[in-house]
From TrEMBL:
Name recorded for this polypeptide: Penicillin-binding protein 1A
GO MF entries: penicillin binding; peptidoglycan glycosyltransferase activity; serine-type D-Ala-D-Ala carboxypeptidase activity
Organism whose genome encodes this protein: Bacteroides reticulotermitis
Pathway membership: Cell wall biogenesis; peptidoglycan biosynthesis
UniProt-listed Pfam families: Transgly, Transpeptidase
Acidic residues composition-biased segments: 760-775
SUPFAM superfamilies found in the cross-reference section: beta-lactamase/transpeptidase-like (SSF56601), Lysozyme-like (SSF53955)
Biological processes per GO annotation: cell wall organization; peptidoglycan biosynthetic process; proteolysis; regulation of cell shape
Domain Glycosyl transferase family: 57-239
One GO CC term on file: outer membrane-bounded periplasmic space
Similarity field: In the C-terminal section; belongs to the transpeptidase family. In the N-terminal section; belongs to the glycosyltransferase 51 family.
Length: 775
């Protein structure tokens, strides 16, 4: 009888074993549950964020979908502390098993399943956890699949061990894990919580991150510091037990507080936010189609079409394809974009904007407008004009659009806009909590002055710094490359260039008196002048440009053709088709972007050769292969002789003219430049260049009717020039950047600016004593 029972038990055991074997074979073949294809196991479908890097190797930011801000890191880029902490805590026999740790699994079954001990530890290996991370979404879609989830994970874990090395499994696990706060993967997490690369993580920092693997929400160090510290100490103790750290190291590290260097990962924050957004927009741009543009967007359609044909970076994602023939996706393909931005120079540019605009100019603007009923608008507007502007602002707001889409009546919308509510608003000293009506908040934000700044190398076009506004979170319209404003007197160098191209020289003279020109319709035009210095005297063209004299500009315009001036401006890289060939063009009523102006002025520093802004030097795929390189785009727009003559005159603007304020900031460098101020102080400009850098700045209100009412603060020399000067001073003070105030422009040997083209072809030498030629 006993023998029969034993036989039956053996048969049942064999049947059970056979069933188990058939179960695992069925799972492996995909007959039961979900088993990913071999191709997926060999190439898991990770979504890696694209990294945007500066020329000096700093990560400016990443592009990703909200839950996939993952940046790939290989095993050799991991700190040994991270690896040791992970193995000690999650899978101490990781090197010994082949996907399933029988010993740990048995212990978990017996202690948890039979003895109900909560501290029995888990039975899942790292390979199983990776399998769960990779394929749980597909596995657990219904009750049956959830029932077989563990066996499926075991099978996948074994297959993963077959296809990958232990090192690859470790790096895959760490790359996949979501550490919260938009930090997916160990590289993003290391930067987010500690501001480090994974290879530089200290023992206690690695232990903190690995501690989060148990439950990132529960052990989030940003929200629950002490709880996360306790979990970190558990990990440190596991590392001690595994022999990775000594007992004294463990005791010492457990006593230290948990200190973070938290960096919030958000595309709206960090360095070069406007630049990154502009770059993202042009790289992912579709091929322009006329049907996608409204009638009032014809200028943009023209620019986009031109960019598509001439700029390899514009629409790059669609113009280039991956190995499988699909276009690149900047959010998921793990690209590395190597930009021309220098992180330190970018920081100095943003600092300069904050110091002048935020700490000095904005308080002055608030002071001027305080108590005025029409603030921040000019008193020259009527109350009805102000109301019309605010009405338009309301209807263009997101709040209005969302309420309209939700079916609210116009009456209800207006009531909501005039109902006070709690809100946080921008200030230069940080967010402020206040109570305002949405309508008042719109008006509040219009008080803030805007700016655009760009700095680039005139020889290769590398854009070193790019600021599109005061703060990207609150003011997202880019005034560096996207927005255009009237340029005022900064247009005059184009006029003078046209004169030099037509045989004039800086030494040519004109009588300094009022000028009256007739337009094509025979209508007289007489420009006003800022001052009457040297009235009635003969003055040189050099003096006229140095002092930004409107009468001398009008005199030249009377000798030249407005149509030729428009053509010349376009040849300098300005794409605005709406520039009108009128006699008043010589004073700058046309609208041009900061980026276009900076690019145009490179011709004055580069012997008449204009270079287009170069934003990116190369792009690498997720495997480190270079898939695109980018080179400077140059064109000769004026003769070298004319460029040398312009250089002489633009130096005079700084040394003896309207740009002299630069010298008050300790800038002794050899440089040229031009100030610009439009009617009613609506726009303030300064363009400045040295042999190695061309930079430009615009400052103004969101609308042209928002401006200073006096020239004290409203002129370009007060609005924009200080930002340029502060930036350059910081650049020069940082010797590691390699820019020197001792650098000098070079002119051909024997060059005479007062002559024609003679001497222009000689050997270049350092310019000396040029100013004596005009005495």
């Amino acid at each position: 009888m006993i023998r029969k029972i034993i036989k039956i038990l053996w048969v049942l055991l064999a049947i059970f074993g056979l069933i188990i074997a058939l179960l695992f074979v069925s799972i492996s073949k995909g007959w039961i549950g979900y088993m990913p294809p071999v191709e997926e196991l060999e190439n898991p479908n990770y979504k890696f964020a694209t990294e945007v890097l500066s020329e000096d190797g700093k990560v400016l930011g990443t592009w990703s979908y909200s839950k996939e801000n993952r940046v790939y890191v290989g095993y050799n880029e991991l700190s040994v502390n991270v690896v040791n902490a992970l193995i000690a805590t999650e899978d101490v026999r990781f090197a010994e098993h082949s996907g399933i740790d029988i010993k740990a699994l048995t212990r978990a079954v017996v202690k948890r399943g039979l003895l109900f001990q909560k501290n029995a530890g888990g039975g899942s290996t790292l390979s199983q956890q990776l399998a769960k991370q990779l394929f749980t979404d597909e596995v657990a879609k219904n009750t049956m699949q959830r029932l077989f989830q563990k066996p499926i994970e075991w099978v996948i874990a074994v297959k993963l061990e077959r296809y990958y090395t232990k090192e690859e499994i470790l790096s895959m696990y760490l790359n996949k894990f979501d550490f919260l706060n938009n930090a997916v993967g160990i590289k993003t997490a290391a930067y987010t919580y500690f501001g480090r690369e994974p290879k530089d993580l200290k023992i206690e920092e690695a232990a903190t991150l690995i501690g989060m693997c148990k439950n990132p929400s529960l052990y989030n160090p940003v929200r629950f510091n002490e709880r996360a510290r306790g979990r970190r100490n558990v990990v440190l103790d596991q590392m001690r037990k595994a022999g990775y750290i000594s007992e004294s190291e463990c005791d010492s590290l457990q006593k230290t507080p948990l200190k973070l260097a938290y960096n919030r990962v958000d595309h709206k924050e960090g360095l070069a936010t406007y630049f990154r957004e502009y770059l993202r927009g042009i790289m992912s741009a579709p091929k322009p189609s006329r049907s996608d543009y409204r009638n009032w967007q014809m200028q943009k359609y023209y620019e986009d079409s031109l960019s598509w044909e001439t700029n390899p970076l514009y629409g790059w994602c669609l113009k280039n394809q991956k190995k499988d023939g699909t276009p690149y996706n900047i959010y998921t393909d793990g690209l590395k974009i190597y930009t021309t931005i220098n992180s330190r120079m970018q920081h100095y540019a943003e600092e300069a904007v904050r110091e002048h605009l935020g700490e000095y100019l904005q308080p002055q603007f608030f002071k001027e407008k305080k108590g005025r009923k029409k603030a921040p608008f000019s008193n020259m507007l009527s109350e009805k004009e102000v109301d019309d502007i605010m009405e338009r602002a309301m209807k263009q707001s997101d709040r209005y659009r969302l309420m309209k889409d939700a079916g609210y009546s116009e009456k209800d919308i207006r009531k909501a806009f005039n109902t006070p509510q709690e809100m946080s608003v921008f200030s230069w000293s940080g967010e402020r909590d206040t109570i305002l009506t949405p309508m008042d908040s719109l008006r509040y934000y219009k008080h803030f002055l805007r700016t655009g700044f760009m700095s680039m190398d005139p020889l290769n076009g590398h854009v070193k710094a790019y600021v599109g506004g005061p703060n990207y979170i609150y003011f997202q319209y880019d005034m560096a490359m996207v927005g255009r404003r009237q340029v005022g007197s900064t247009i005059k160098p184009y006029l003078y260039t046209l004169a030099m191209e037509n045989g004039f020289s800086p030494c040519d003279q004109a009588r300094h008196v009022e000028q009256t020109l007739l337009d094509e319709n025979g209508t007289p035009w007489s420009p006003r002048n800022a001052n009457n210095k040297r009235y009635g005297e003969m003055v040189t063209l050099k003096w006229g440009l140095a002092n930004s004299d409107n009468w001398i500009s009008a005199y030249l315009m009377g000798k030249l053709n407005p149509y030729e001036l428009v053509r010349l401006i376009h040849s300098f890289g300005v794409r605005n088709k709406d520039i009108q060939p009128t006699v008043s063009l010589c004073l700058g009523p046309c609208e041009i972007s900061v980026g276009e102006m900076v690019s145009a002025y490179t011709a004055f520093a580069n012997k008449g050769i204009r270079v287009a802004p170069l934003l990116v030097t190369r792009i690498e795929d997720s495997e480190g292969n270079v898939i695109s390189t980018f080179n400077p785009q140059m064109s000769e727009v004026i003769s070298a002789t004319s460029a040398y003559k312009m250089l002489v005159m633009l130096r005079a603007v700084i040394n003896e003219g309207t740009g002299g304020r630069v010298r008050r900031y300790g800038i002794t460098a050899d440089m040229g430049g031009k100030t610009g101020t439009t009617n009613r102080n609506s726009d303030g400009w300064f363009m400045g260049f040295t042999p190695s850098l061309v930079s430009g700045c615009w400052v103004g209100g969101e609308e042209r009717d928002i401006h200073f009412d006096t020239m004290t603060f409203g002129q370009g020399a007060s609005l924009a020039l200080p930002i340029w000067a502060k930036y350059m001073k910081k650049v020069y003070d940082d010797a590691s950047l390699g820019y020197s105030q001792q650098e000098r422009f070079k002119l051909p040997n024997g060059f005479d600016p007062c002559a024609g083209s003679e001497g222009a072809d000689g050997e270049p030498v350092e310019e000396t004593g040029l100013d004596d030629l005009f005495n």
